[in-house]
Amino acid sequence: MSKTNMTRRGVLKTGAIAGAGVALPTIFTASSAAAYTNEPTGSSVTLGFNVPQTGPYADEGADELRAYQLAVEHLNGEGDGGMMNTFSSKELQGNGILGKKVEFVTGDTQTKSDAARASAKSMIEKDGAVMITGGSSSGVAIAVQGLCQEAGVIFMAGLTHSNDTTGKDKKANGFRHFFNGYMSGAALAPVLQNLYGSDRNAYHLTADYTWGWTQEESIKAATEALGWNTVNAVKTPLAATDFSSYIAPVLNSGADVLVLNHYGGNMVNSLTNAVQFGLRDKVVNGKNFEIVVPLYSRLMAKGAGENVKGIHGSTNWHWSLQDDASKAFVKSFGTKYGFPPSQAAHTVYCQTLLYADAATRAGTFNPCGIAEALEGFEFDGLGNGPTLYRAEDHQCFKDVLVVRGKENPTSEFDLLEVVEVTPAAQVTYAPDHPMFAGGALGECNPGA
Amino acid sequence: MDAIILQILNGLDKGSAYALIALGLTLIFGTLGVVNFAHGALFMIGAFCAVTLSKILNLSFETVDASQTDFLGNPLKVKTPYVMEWFGPETGAAIIDWSVPLAILFSIPIMVAFGFIMERGLIKHFYKREHADQILVTFGLAIVLQEVVKYFFGANPIPTGAPDVFKGSFDFGVMLGFDPNAIIYPYWRLVYFGFSALVIGGVFAFLQFTTFGMVVRAGMADRETVGLLGINIDRRFTIMFGIAAAVAGVAGVMYAPINSPNYHMGMDFLVLSFVVVVVGGMGSLPGAVLAGFLLGILESFASMNFVKELIPGIDQIIIYVVAIIILLTRPRGLMGRKGVMEE
After folding, report:
1. Prediction pTM value
2. What part of B 235-264 touches A (C-beta under 8 Å)?
3. Domain A44-179+319-393 classified CATH 3.40.50.2300?
4. CATH fit for domain A182-315, picks 3.40.50.150, 3.20.20.80, 2.40.50.100, 3.40.50.2300
5. Domain count, chain B
6. What DSSP assignment string belongs to A255-289?
7. Per the CB < 8 Å rule, is B259 touching A278?
8. Would you call B258 and A330 a contact, using CB atoms and an 8 Å cutoff?
């Protein structure tokens, strides 16, 4: 029988030496090789798709994920290439990004800021994601954008419409392709003026969070500039499901237009309630009562059924557009999945291609190199006409669509029709516009 | 004055839904002593019975219309529901139009059967366990049920309209001599209120005027003694569970046209319904109904603009504030029986 002489000091010494030995290679790699967070060293590069897979926006998240998978296929040279064939930049060759095969991991935002940050963090730290993208809510986008800035990875925002995402909460590592509340107001106002005149009294119902506030502010400013009067603007709880008690007093307020600054389930229910209360059949101040939904989503419009008929709003993109890029994307997506893509699918597909193209042009996955390549980048052929990724705030400036709920849809997808394509110049604002004031991009953070 | 009447009316339909769910909750608690957190899910499943029947009635065959194209440019496949083919376009369209009222008949056997399976298969194993265990298992069941519904129906709301004849609204204010547009009320909400009153009246009559109801009431008061008299009270209580599930189910069916059903709608009502039960008094059926309408109306008043200006955010907390006040001043609830949930 052997006897071991284990002492406390001996165990500590051995542990310290072993620990230093294990840590040594990591220390060397960290200090010498990695110039930025999650620099890809193998033959592949990992992107992190952070979308709502559970919770009320899960269907929108599922559509985003479909578009991401399609984008990855196209980047890796599979499928028909989709909008890579129409994209004005011809850097992407279908051989991955910088010759590395594109792989991806997914996270579930649950449309909750803390869950979204946790899943993004996990994809960055555990899966080595070099870029995070996705989301279907401004609250989530702003939270994840902040995290990516700290972690030193690029954040390519998904569906986020709050002015704040590229306004007071903008970050050097964050980029938004989707349009915003200001742009909705600027695009809608002239159409509303043509349709309903300059002498109108508007009543706003607004979801009580960042997106709702900035959209209300934007639409109020745009319509008041036309000469409209804002009778009242009432905040409604995000968790509200029945809006009857908010809608019932509208008719008696003297208002002749109801603006619903709601999205998702809120929009479906408030619009349904408003139509139930017969608002659209009423004549107030000698004019037909009208309802406006500034931010439309086809997926959400489906939930409101025939109540969307004849109601105007704005959208980032619609599958019925007839430009070559949109047709190529609809064909590619529709052939693979059997139905046309949503605007959420379109924006995230574009963001993935834009990221890949920027990395290729920069010749690096370094977030600072990619940011530099995206800043001031002008492109076309992604379904929105000529577009600028503005350097000052990382916001895309492109045409905005004004749409109307279709009176006689021919299919379950045929819910909206494009009324007007508002040119980018009309929705462009100065980088220091008061609605976007406060906050600064700061310096790009490569992490590591 | 017109604004007050308007909010009372608004509160009535919200209160109707609270009262119907709370009634079912109280029936289950009063008979089986189980705190059923899956009751909101039963309301949701009821609404999805309406969605399912509407989908069944809309089952279609496809014919190709070469004169139109789909989104990919292929000839458009036009869908025609089988019911229109079988019964003719007019009768077929009328059947589809009336799918929500028809879903009441469709949902009752489904909900009763669902209630039986739920009680016999799961809940009965928790009768002798702590209330905390019952809450955990029923809450877990609610989450499972809503995820199953989401798997089959998706996360987006599904529009399920009322029959055309009940669409739109009427000017109640003019009837009372107010200005036009002062009090507008949708027809279907009035139908919902009337339907709720009918169901609540039916449940009370059933308990009050039938032998079965008498035994159940006796069992609620003293289960042991009724059992000693040789009456199989357990079987009757199982039936009551089925009835409570059916009440929640039909409440959900009729609610479908008010707000498009989604998988989460049960949870939205569940917490409020529990507050209703507690305010009404645990185990008290009239208390549940009274508190349902009372809290529905108070919630409507709290969302009036001048009230919100006075106390910002009151519309989100009013129900809980009232619950705290009532429980502080009258811990047993409005009509709670002595000894229920008391040591």
Report:
1. 0.86
2. 258-260, 262, 264
3. yes
4. 3.40.50.2300
5. 1
6. -SEEEEE--THHHHHHHHHHHHTTGGG-EETTEE-
7. no
8. no
